[in-house]
Design a protein that fits this description.
The structure is a single chain. By secondary structure, the protein is α+β, with helices and mostly antiparallel strands. Helix content is 55%, strand content 20%. The chain has a six-stranded mixed beta barrel. Strands 2-10 form a two-stranded antiparallel sheet. A hairpin with a 5-residue loop joins strand 7 (165-171) and strand 8 (177-188). Helix 2 runs antiparallel to helix 14 (373-390). The protein is elongated, with a radius of gyration of 31 Å.
Length: 410
C-alpha cells in the first residue's frame, strides 16, 4: 500500500501544469462555496437577530390558537408561577408582557385604523429595541401613563403634531366600547411599513383599562435569549415546565412565518448557485483526471502485463485524485475562512439608496459573514465527495483496460 501512495504522489507532479489546473479548480470551488455560504448564512443571522430583537422576541408565549386567530378574547392571566419559570431559566435574559388590539385613532376629522400595543417600558427596554427606534419626541416611562408613541407615517396621515391630543376607540374584552384621550409624545420609525403606518404604543396598564382586560390579562410574553442557538432548547424546556394546555410557546419562525419563508426561498436560490458551481468544477476535475489516465494507458498496459493487479491500478487513480483534492481543499478552506473572518469583523454596510430600500423592508443594510465551523466542514465533505465521484469514470476505464489494448494505445 505504501508503494501505491508513493506512486500516486509522484504521478501527480509528473505533469505539473495539469495538476496545477486541477488544484486551481478545487481551490476555487472550496473557497467560493465557503465564502458564499458564509456571507449568505451570516447575513441571515444578522437579520434574524435584528428582527427578533426589534420587537417579536426569540420566543413568545400565547394562548393556543392566538397566532392563527389573533382575537382579543384569547388573553390569559400573567400568574406568578409562570413568571418564576421564566426568571429561573438562565438562558432567558429578559421577558416582557404585551397587550395587542385593533382600534381607531382620531384627530379632528381624521380617523385611521391602528394596531394597539400595550407595553411595559421598563421591561420592553431590556427585551426589544423598539424604544431605540424613537425618531422624534420621547417614550413614556410609566406603565399607567396616558401618553402614546405612534408610527411616523400614522402621524403624517393624521396630520397631527407631537404634543397634541388624540382619541382612541377600541372594543373591550367584555364587548363594551372603550375610549380614552391620549397625548402623543413621540414617533417611531421601525423600517416596517405596516408598523410605521398603524402602530400605537401605550402603557400596558392603560391598554388593559381601555380594553377591559381586568385581572392582569395579556396576549403574549416576548422572551429574549442569550443566544439564538439556544432557542430550541429553551422552547422545549418551557413546554415541559409549563403544564397549561391553553398556552403555546412559539419560536420566531412560527411568529414570523413570512420572514422564514423569505429566507428559505433565498437560501434555495443560493444553494442552486452552489450546485451549478460544483457541477462545473466536477466536470473540470473529470476532464483532467480522464486525460491523465488516458495518456498513461500504454504505461498501465505494461504494468498489467507484468502482473500488476487491476484493482491496484484503480486504487492508484483514486489515491491520486484524493491527494490532489485534499491539497486543494486545505488551501481553499484557509482562504475561505480568511475571507469569512474578515467580513465577520468588517461587515459591508450599504449606504444611500440601498440602505433606504433595505430599511423600508425591515432589513439591516448590512452584509456580514459567518465563521461557524460547520460551514467549512460541510463544504469540505461536499467538494471531496464531488472529486471522488468525478474520478469514478476514469477508474472504470482503468478497470476495463486490457493489457494488450493498453500497450497498443497511442
Amino acid at each position: 500500500m505504501n508503494l501505491l501512495f508513493k506512486l500516486a504522489w509522484r504521478n501527480i507532479w509528473r505533469n505539473k501544469r495539469r495538476s496545477y489546473i486541477t488544484l486551481a479548480a478545487i481551490i476555487f470551488a472550496t473557497f467560493a462555496t465557503i465564502a458564499m455560504r458564509g456571507i449568505q448564512l451570516g447575513t441571515y443571522g444578522v437579520n434574524i437577530k435584528n428582527a427578533v430583537e426589534m420587537f417579536t422576541g426569540y420566543l413568545q408565549i400565547q394562548r393556543t390558537g392566538y397566532q392563527e386567530n389573533p382575537s382579543l378574547n384569547l388573553a390569559f392571566s400573567l400568574e406568578d408561577s409562570l413568571q418564576n419559570i421564566l426568571e429561573t431559566n438562565d438562558k432567558i435574559i429578559s421577558f416582557t408582557p404585551r397587550v395587542y388590539a385593533a382600534g381607531l385613532i382620531s384627530y379632528k376629522d381624521n380617523s385611521y385604523g391602528s394596531a394597539i400595543f400595550g407595553i411595559d417600558p421598563s421591561k420592553e427596554k431590556k427585551t426589544s429595541k423598539i424604544l431605540d427606534k424613537l425618531k422624534n419626541g420621547y417614550f413614556f416611562t410609566s406603565d399607567t401613563s396616558l401618553e402614546i408613541v405612534i408610527g411616523e407615517k400614522l402621524l403624517n396621515n393624521l396630520k397631527v403634531n407631537i404634543g397634541e391630543t388624540v382619541v382612541i376607540l377600541a372594543q373591550g374584552f367584555d364587548g363594551s366600547l372603550g375610549n380614552l384621550k391620549f397625548k402623543i409624545t413621540g414617533t417611531v420609525k421601525t423600517g416596517s411599513p405596516e408598523l410605521d403606518n398603524m402602530a400605537v404604543f401605550m402603557s400596558i396598564r392603560t391598554s388593559q383599562e381601555l380594553l377591559a382586560l381586568y385581572g392582569n390579562r395579556i396576549h403574549s410574553i416576548a422572551i429574549k435569549l442569550n443566544s439564538l442557538e439556544n432557542m430550541d432548547e429553551v422552547q422545549d424546556s418551557l413546554k415541559s415546565n409549563i403544564k397549561s394546555k391553553n398556552l403555546a410557546i412559539l419560536n420566531w419562525e412560527e411568529v414570523m412565518p413570512d420572514l422564514k419563508q423569505s429566507i428559505d426561498l433565498d437560501n434555495i436560490s443560493g444553494l442552486l448557485m452552489l450546485i451549478i458551481l460544483i457541477i462545473i468544477v466536477a466536470f473540470g476535475i473529470l476532464n483532467t483526471v480522464l486525460m491523465s489516465v488516458t495518456e498513461r494507458f500504454n504505461e498501465f498496459g505494461v504494468t498489467l502485463s507484468i502482473g500488476m493487479p487491476q484493482i491496484k491500478l484503480v486504487l492508484l487513480v483514486l489515491i491520486e485524485t484524493v491527494f490532489i483534492a485534499i491539497i486543494g481543499i486545505i488551501i481553499g478552506d484557509i482562504l475561505g475562512y480568511a475571507i469569512n473572518n474578515y467580513f465577520y469583523f468588517n461587515p459591508i454596510e450599504f449606504g444611500s439608496e440601498f440602505a433606504y430600500i433595505y430599511e423600508e423592508y425591515g432589513f439591516l443594510p448590512v452584509m456580514q459573514s459567518s465563521i461557524n465551523p460547520y460551514i467549512i466542514v460541510n463544504n469540505t465533505i461536499l467538494v471531496l465527495t464531488i472529486s471522488v465521484i468525478a474520478c469514478l469514470y476514469p477508474m472504470y476505464k482503468v478497470y476495463r483496460l486490457e493489457p494488450l489494448k493498453g500497450i497498443r494505445h497511442t
